[in-house]
Amino acid sequence: MRARSGLLGCLAAGIVGCSAVGGPGIALPVIQPTAPPGVHELCPLALHTPFTLEGDASQSPPVWGVDRAGATFAIFWPPGFTARFSPDLEVLDPSGRVVERGGLVTDLGGGGDPNSGSFDVCSVGAANY
Fold it and tell me: Is the residue at 9 inside a domain?
């Protein structure tokens, strides 16, 4: 009964990704495409700059990067990526597979805009999105 009432509380509050165990994740900020539809950007040439992945379900956005100097920056993801906290941060790809974990140095490829302090993800490990 408690699990059921907890789930009903999550639904009543309208919280995305609220679940006692696993479940759907919290939607992550999405990259705004810069290439025309149907044209793939050169993700294999993307930067693979090491940084630590951090997050907190109560923050907006719930996931961010921390560089070697300790500065934080926003991360924008391909469509369909989510985060869950069970209890530690996990980032899931659109198929629901865990591809990144909080507190670890990432294997994300992409690029950023130094003026805006953000990073656009286009690859995770060997997978391009």
Answer: no
Number of domains the chain contains:
1
Query: What are the counts of helices (DSSP H) followed by strands (DSSP E) for the chain?
Result: 1, 10
Is 75 within 8 Å of 64 (Cβ atoms)?
A: yes
Residue 89 in any domain: the answer is yes
List, for residues 65-90, the tens digit of each pLDDT value: 998 889 899 999 999 999 999 899 99
Cβ atoms 92, 81 nearer than 8 A = yes
pTM listed for this prediction: 0.71
What is the length of the chain? 129
pLDDT in tens, 26-53: 999 887 765 555 555 556 556 667 889 9
Q: Is 26 helix (H, G, I), strand (E, B) or coil?
A: strand
